Each structure stands twice: as C-alpha cells, then as structure tokens.
Amino acid sequence: MSIPGPQDIARHELDNGIVVLVRENHASPSVVVSGYLPVGAYDERPEQAGLSEFTASALMRGTTHRTFEQIYEELESVGASVGVGGGVHTTGFGAKSLVEDLPLALDVLADVLRHPTFPRDQVERLRGEILTDLEERAHDTQRMAHLAFHELAYPKEHPYARSVVGYLETVSRLDRDDLAEFYDGGYGPQGMVVVVVGAVKSADAVAHIADALGDWTGHTCARPPFPGAPRLTEVRSRTVTIPGKTQSDVVLGYPGPPRAAPDFLDAVVCNTILGVFGLMGRLGQNVRDEQGLAYYSYSHVDGGSGPGPWSVVAGVNPANVERAIASVRQEIRRMREEPVGEQELADNKAFITGSLPLRLETNEGVARAILDMERYQLGLDYLQRYTGLIGEIDASRVQAAAQRWLDPDVYALAVAGPPASE
Amino acid sequence: MSFVKTTLENGLTVLVKEAHAAPVASFWVWYRVGSRNEHTGITGVSHWVEHMLFKGTPTFLKGEAEKAIAREGGVFNGMTWYDFTTYLATLPADRIELALRIEADRMANSLFEPHEVASERSVIISERQGAENDPEFLLNEELMAAAFRVHPYGTDTIGHMCDLETMTRDQLHAYYTTYYAPHNALAVAVGDFEAADMRRLIEQHFSAIPGGGIVPPITAVEPPQRGERQVAVEGEGSVAYLQVVFRAPSVHDPDFFALTALGAALTGAGGLAFFGGGLTNKSSRLYQALVATELATTVSGTLIPTVDPFVYGLSATVRAGHTSAEVKEALDAELARLIAEPVTQEELTKAIKQAKAQFAYSSESVTGQALWLGLSEIFADYAWFEGYIANLSAVTVEDVQRAAQAYLKPSNRTIGWYVPMSNA
User: Fold this and answer.
1) Which of A143, A219, A223, B351 is deepest in the core (most CB within 10 A)?
2) Which CATH class is domain A10-213?
3) CATH 3.30.830.10 fits B229-420, yes or no
4) Are A279 and B280 inside 8 Å of each other by CB?
C-alpha cells in the first residue's frame, strides 16, 4: 500500500461548498469520518467564553427528527459513534462505524449538524455536566497550569488567552437561545470539509455525503483576520496554588509558529530534538533521565491555523520546581546557541520521516493527515513530498527556528501545585 | 490468516501472525510477572524493573535502544499490569529485526547499575505523586485494598510509597533474574512479513538465552466476601466520586460472558478493558438512571480479564449540587431491577453488535492485534479471544439474570466514597 496521495485520494466539491475527500482502505470492515466546520471559539465574545463548545456538544442533544435518546440508541445499537466538539478556529466532528452502518452514521451526523433543536432540558443537563467538569478543572494541576499559561502567553483579548470550554461565570450565564443564535450565525456548508477513510468505494462515499449534506444551505459567518500574537518581551509567570496536591505541573513556553509559517517544519525538527525524540528528546534525557526530577518532561509545537503555543510541560515534585525550570531553560538556551550535531540531526529527521507509515496505519491516522492537507492547503501530494521537505532542513535552519521562537530568558511560565511549604 | 504458536527449546512461547494491510510490524515480549507476584516490602517492584530495562545493557547502553528505534521511525514502550509486564516496538516492517535484537538482549543482560536505580527511584516516586493528584486514583487505591485483603490485586501496580522509598538495587535485580527468562515469557509478532521468516528470526535471536529457574508459584486466594464493605476517602477538591466493585468470576468461568453482557446493558460495551473505548454509553441503563436524571455527570463500568478472579467496577462523578448518597440510591434501584427482572433480548443483541464493531476497530492496527494476541495468551489463550463473539452470542437473558443475582448483590461489593473537603 502506498503513501496516500493524489492517485488514491478522491476530492470532490459539492455545489454548496462542502469539500469531500475519500480514501479507500478495505483491510478492515470499518469506516472513519472526520471533518470540520469553520466556526469556533474565535466567533464568540469574551463574555460568552465556552459558547462555541457548549453549542457543539448540544447538537447531539436532539434534532427535529430524533430525540437525544433516539440518537444514542441508534448509534450504540450498532457499535457506532458520532461526536462533535469545539475548537478555537473550527468545530470538529467525527464518526466511526462498521461499513454496513455508514449510511446510518452519516444520517445522524448530518441530522445533528443541520437540524438541532437545543431542547431546554437537555441544555440544562449539559450545562450541569460542563460546570461539574469546570469544578474538577479548578483542582487539576495539569489543566490549571495550561489555563494560566495561555493567559500569560497571549494578550488579554486574544482568542488563545481564553478557555475553549469557558469558565464557571460565563457558562452559568449562557442560555438555550444563546446556543441557537450562535448556531444560526455560524453553521453552514461553506468551508466545511469531510474526510472518509475505510472500506467503502469512493463514489459511494461521495454519493452518501451528497445525499446527506448536498442540499444544506445554512450560511457561515464572516470573520475578521485572526490576530497574530506579539513576541513576549518579559518573563510572565504565575503560580496557581492547589492545597493538598503532591505534584506540581509546569508549563513554560511561547506563542509559536502557525502551520502556514515558512519555518514550521524547521520548528518541528527543533521541537523533536528538544522534547520528543526517543524518550522525550533532550528534555527527557536531562530532566527525567539524568536528574530524575520528573516522570514526564516533553515539548510540543501546536502549529494550527494561528500562532498556537510552543511549550514545554513537566510534572515534578514541588521541591524540584526551580531545578526543573532551570534545566528546561538550559536546554532551550542550548538549542539557540549551539547548532545541533550532524548525527543528532540525522537521527531526528529519520524519526520524523520514518514514523510516517505508523502514523498512516489506521483509518483515523490517514483521515487526520488528509484533513491537515486540505485545511492548511498543503496539497494532496504533501505526504509524498514530506521526506524531501524534512531532508532539506539543516542545522542552521533548526537553530534559526529556535532563535526566532524560543528564548531562555523571556517566556511565559505557569506552575500549578501545592503551596511551597507543604 | 490465523496465527501460529510454537515453543522454543528454552521454553519461550512464540506467536506469529501475518497482517499485510500496511507496511508495518509490531513485536512484543510479554513476561508472566506483574504486581500479582508482589508482596508487602516490594510492592511496585515489577513496574520499577520495567523502568530499569530502559536503562541499558552492555550492548545497548542507556538511551541507545530507544534512539535506535526512533531513528528507524518506530515507537517503543513498556507497560506493567497486575498479571504481566510487556515491552513493545512497532516499526516499518523491514526494520522489525531491530526490536528482536533489543528484546533478546535485555531479557538477560540488563545492567541495573546502582546510580541508575537511584535516579529512577525519584522518577517513579514522581509518577506516583502525579497519580496522587487525581482524587479518583486515591479513591480507587483504597477501594481495591478493601476489596482484596489477601490477594495482591488489592495493591496498585505503582506500589506503596514506603516500598518505593526503601527498595534496594539487589531486590530489583533478584526479581529480574527470577522472572525474566524465556520459559516465563511470550514473544508476539504481528505484521507485514512471512510467518515462517519471522519464526526463524525469533529463534535466531532468542534460542541462545538459557531457560530460567523455578518461578515462585502464587498461592494467594482471596477468601469469600461475607458482607458489604465500604471505604471513604477525604481529600482535596469540590467534586464527589462514587466507585463500586463487585467480586467477579475468572475468564475461565462461563459466567464471565454473562457478566460481560450484563456490563454492556448496565454501562455500555466500551468497558471491556484495553479496547480503548471510543464507544459512548448514553443508551445504557446506568446512564439513564444516573446521568439522565442529573444526579451524576459520568458513569462507566469496567470488566478486566485477569488470571485470577477480579472485579466488575462501576464509577460515577457526582454532579455539582447532588450527593454521592443520592447516586448510590439510584444505583441500588437499578441493580435491584436487574436482579428481579431479566434484561431484554434487544440489549443482548446490542452487546454482541458492539463487541463485533470493537473487534473490527481493534484489528485496524498491528499494534492492536499484537496486544490482543499477547494479552489473551496471558490470561487464557488466543482461542479465548477468537471464541469471544461466539461465547457472547450464546449468552441468554436467563444467564444474565443469574449473573446479576450472583454477582451484583450488596454482600458481594465494596463501595468507595470520595468526600471532597474544599469549599470551592
């Protein structure tokens, strides 16, 4: 089986603007559907934080054709699943089923996207579930460290500074009509992408989707250009104290390169060296392996539609927080100041390109890759060019990416854990 | 094609299965050792030994094995559980021999250098402290300790903090030399290769390793439970959790499949552990009774296949503004209904269809196939896995009711209450 490309990915544009991409895989009798609509937390006002996510979740709570109970009875009876979830830029959806149940899964998916009714009792039930989750978040060191990090790394009004699931005070205030209004203003076929991967003929998959979604006419909201994120000019740090915990979570990072940045792949190679390769790259070696300070210490470059974070995450004993931060900064400094050695660079590049077959093994993996190619306009031959693109990256490009995006002396830093004295 | 099972002269069991859908292969070595083999004083030793197998041999110095795998584009990991410790690598198929070299080497030659043991001690303590941040871990640890007072299943695989602080290098090394030997292990390969070639390769890399000594037998038998047990954990947070475990039959007991069907009706079929979930359970009885009534925000169930009899577990998150006592009352009403009236044929049909779908999903990746091949050999054999759907299909509504009466009665359960102490 070859790497997915223009030769085996069918791409169709429906009249209402929906882009459909299909790749057949007949190895297992299952099918995955994955896609997004261009509506998200970016389209909500700050005082409505959580509205987009709340709306996406509420779609599954009832339609003009099906009650909440009917939706899940139909899906679960055949071991299928359908889900919708909010993001900042988009609202993602997915479905998974045996191939014989694909028409049902698509019918339910189209129904919840096109005909939601937002029943009041269901909206209240869902609100209670979200509020309970937010109560749990307030006592979760990992989630609180990430929340604080976003507030520190981005300007106050930036969409990335806000929580996509919202806050107790904002979610408490949203009502059923807010959800319906948000839906009416932003859900429509224009800009929607659907990927189907699995044991189905391309033509059949396209026909199923055209049947289910081809006559949808809802409109999509107009958006101002997404704001960039200025470089940090000073250390911005915060400690969130949660009494009674035994471990502190640390997030240190920066606004990072969007997926479309010309040096995005340079940043990927740099990040792999810093905190991914083998057992979490140089960070894992220094912080975990040599010093025994943490069970995990790794880095991640987000690379989405906007300047998502490039960050380092570590879970450490409260007594070791300062030492761990010093080690993280030391590794970041090394990335900026020293060109990476020839062998280390070659190893990391080999990992990035060599792991492609593993990432493309499952239907979900292939769907994810196709969705990214469409979303970021990489071209359907991108995976086939990928090895070449990574191959061109040399030590100076890696170092330049570190110098452009990382700084050991200027960063956003959030720590969540017990008080220092505990 | 189906799988091929053989045994080398040194006792190593070898399971090989071809899968040609993608150019990848997965290789695992499973050891029949886990926290089930531990006792007070060395709890957590199986998991710590697993960590030490990533700390080098004379051939692959520390860090070299994972770098070699990564360089070939592979993934590399280890996992410790009650009944087993396993090591896996998934690679492009033409590079899979590297995983065989690494696993054969570290089966016999891991160094356990004292300074590496010392630095790993703090990593493992950090792993435990991270888990302790989670109220549901704290509750589950107490709950299992109350449910099992004799059998080692009552202790979490991570081990007690005092043992992690005091265990010595020599204890770790002795444990390694006792349990890490071909006759106590399985080698499992699934992927894009010829089965005969793979068997030859495994033989070439593993046959020179000498068979080990006698593996200490496990004599612990959990005595019958004579009444309901309860345990409360007070802790940080503002959300309450309720967990209930029922003593359950072994996978070899015909009742296991009746309990599986029962679990699907109660909390959905996603609960058979290691399938990785993905299935919602919103049409299940307990979702309807606890979440749709707005007493809880989540409910889930797990029935984990194990070597010795284990538990069927239920877990719920109490909705803000409600109490664990209300959730328990609604739960009791549902359990009483299951004991009094049979489930419907529709519920059984649904459970079978859900299981079929999960089998199809889990066979998409060679890693998933190798996991099931090895796992089912650990607690039964692969025939158990292959017969799963047929056995589940043979369950009748009467079987389910009988299982409900036998296993879901209050005297067979332990209830755990997490009492949040923050006034957030």
Assistant:
1) B351
2) alpha beta
3) yes
4) no
